[in-house]
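Q: Please design a sequence for this.
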């Protein structure tokens, strides 16, 4: 038995002999408020073997069996989760504020916030679309297996095969979800289902060895030391069998269902079409912006920001000698059409993009340190979005590092369409997804030892994405956007987020069609049409989410101005960033309270 496993078992033994304390911790109201908050996270975490595999918190103690299991997606599991949520909320509120420390009262507010939202909006629990081109189950499970599931030894390789063989069970649970929504009339638009169909068909290959699940596993085995060739051959044979006998039949059944449901779907893009859809959309705005703003307010803010940013871009174009008298759409499209902005549409060109993204990260890591007192210990690397999902994936996204250090933070770049990676836009995307954007914020949050577990893993979109968009602005203010073309790229990135406010509210509140939203975004951003379509269809299946970016950024910028004006010479940008980052992901209203408290302390 390994030392790590002995330590893990000893730890469990110590917990077990706690007797009454353990009973209270698990089944009753824990004596200690901090223990209760830990219990909530631990219990929910233990319910998700996939989340445990992602964060790798138990592996250092030799506890690994969860790596052979998949999450329970059944309706029964939903009901149990809701019951636990209500019970946890009742217990949480039973702790009297006067018996808690100031920090505990703060943690109580933060834990209560999402619970209250879930309970208040219980009637809309099944209003989302689990079958989409973006975060549909078929994409999630394949990305999880090929990317997140670690294969560091023979045991984890065995777990990979075990999980493949359990895909049928999870798929049947997933179908419960789809059929419940079908009965309620919660059906994605026809064009979304067509994209899903286009993703499902090529995944079913003639030879299982040509499938991504096989290729990714083989690559991991090839890099694995200390495992015999006989074991590797056996595992690959078992994987081939699982893909042929389990995975392919499941994908074929899901393809049939997608075609069937497409026949009764409509082309209406907005959730206004759903029963009580306007009320549902308002709940999503509040959830994703953590504000009480209305759709009309957000729409007008978006139009105002679009006009402001385009004005700044026109000044840069004029400085570069472009004719700014022509319509903005024509100007930006002419600029983005110039061949000088793009890499060769080859494997070598795509490899160079990854190499150049990596160089940009290293450059800003070395130059931005004067703006931050704290930087994450975990490194960040650049990877290509897996080919089998890139057609429906966003231009870039971030994956958090593993707690045990086995996996760094990752910035995934979408290289499906070479026109989607203009050189002038690469810096802004790097600063958003990696440094000092998502990687600094998310990795630092995970690494803070004094944060309770639930705060380590909380993620409010307006804060998380607002910080990443704010990070783009910080990099430009520091001069990392070195040319006017780079600055145009940075402003185009910000313009893109402002346009999102307009099109998201346009489709879901003002009854815009998909085509109207595509035209507005294309006319006002100059983005590649493939990217425009991908983004618009993302907002269709994820209503309100796109609104958090700009509102979060504008809030952080306003709070920075507020602190700088109030403190004058006492203002320190590094301290301000500490205040914003060290509190972890919180609602914007609570973030403002933290900045106000910082101002009061420094005044």
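A: Design:
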């Amino acid at each position: 038995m390994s030392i790590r496993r002995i330590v893990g078992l000893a730890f469990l033994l110590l917990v077990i002999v706690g007797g009454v304390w353990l009973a209270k911790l698990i089944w009753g109201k824990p004596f200690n408020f901090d223990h209760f908050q830990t219990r909530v996270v631990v219990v929910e975490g233990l319910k998700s073997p996939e989340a445990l595999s992602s964060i790798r918190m138990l592996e250092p103690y030799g506890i690994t069996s969860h790596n052979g299991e998949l999450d329970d997606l059944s309706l029964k599991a939903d009901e149990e989760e809701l019951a636990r949520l209500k019970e946890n909320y009742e217990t949480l509120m039973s702790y009297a504020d006067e018996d808690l420390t100031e920090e505990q009262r703060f943690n109580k507010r933060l834990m209560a916030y999402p619970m209250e939202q879930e309970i208040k909006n219980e009637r809309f629990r099944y209003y989302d679309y689990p079958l989409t081109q973006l975060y549909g189950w078929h994409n999630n499970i394949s990305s999880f297996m090929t990317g997140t599931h670690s294969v560091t030894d023979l045991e984890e390789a065995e777990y990979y095969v075990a999980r493949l063989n359990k895909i049928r069970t999870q798929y049947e649970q997933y179908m419960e979800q789809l059929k419940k929504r079908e009965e309620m009339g919660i059906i994605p638009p026809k064009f979304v289902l067509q994209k899903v169909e286009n993703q499902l068909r090529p995944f079913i290959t003639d030879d299982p060895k040509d499938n991504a699940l096989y290729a990714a596993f083989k690559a991991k085995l090839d890099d694995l030391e200390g495992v015999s060739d006989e074991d590797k051959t056996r595992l690959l044979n078992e994987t081939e069998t699982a893909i042929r006998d389990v995975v392919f039949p499941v994908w074929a059944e899901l393809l049939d269902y997608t075609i069937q449901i497409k026949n009764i779907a409509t082309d209406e893009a907005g959730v206004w079409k759903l029963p009580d859809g306007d009320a549902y959309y308002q709940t999503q705005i509040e959830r994703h912006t953590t504000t009480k703003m209305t759709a009309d307010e957000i729409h007008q803010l978006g139009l105002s920001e679009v006009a402001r940013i385009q004005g700044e871009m026109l000044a840069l174009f004029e400085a570069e000698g472009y004719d700014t008298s022509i319509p903005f759409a024509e100007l930006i499209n002419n600029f983005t059409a110039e061949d000088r902005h793009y890499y060769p549409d080859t494997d070598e060109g795509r490899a160079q993009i990854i190499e150049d993204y990596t160089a940009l990260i290293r450059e800003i890591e070395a130059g931005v340190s004067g703006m931050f007192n704290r930087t994450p210990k975990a490194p960040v690397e650049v990877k290509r979005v897996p080919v089998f999902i890139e057609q429906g994936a966003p231009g870039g996204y971030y994956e958090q590092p593993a707690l045990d250090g086995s996996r760094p933070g990752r910035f995934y770049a979408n290289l499906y369409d070479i026109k989607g990676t203009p050189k002038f836009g690469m810096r802004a995307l790097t600063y958003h997804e990696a440094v000092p954007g998502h990687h600094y914020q998310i990795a630092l949050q995970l690494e803070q030892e004094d944060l309770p577990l639930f705060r380590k893993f909380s993620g409010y979109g307006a804060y998380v994405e607002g910080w990443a968009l704010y990070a783009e602005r910080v990099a430009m203010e520091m001069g990392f956007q070195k040319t006017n073309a780079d600055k145009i790229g940075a402003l185009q990135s910000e313009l893109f987020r402002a346009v999102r406010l307009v099109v998201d509210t346009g489709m879901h509140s003002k009854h815009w069609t998909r085509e109207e939203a595509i035209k507005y975004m294309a006319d006002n951003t100059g983005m590649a049409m493939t990217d425009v379509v991908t983004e618009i269809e993302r907002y269709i299946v994820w209503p309100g989410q796109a609104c958090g970016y700009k509102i979060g950024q504008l809030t952080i910028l306003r709070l920075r101005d507020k602190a700088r004006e109030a403190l004058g010479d006492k203002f320190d940008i590094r301290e301000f960033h500490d205040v914003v980052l060290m509190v972890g992901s919180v609602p914007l209203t609570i973030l403002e309270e933290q900045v106000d408290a910082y101002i009061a302390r420094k005044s």
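Q: Thanks. Anything notable?
A: The chain has three domains: 1-125, 127-267, 282-553. Residues 315 and 324 are 8 Å apart (CA to CA).
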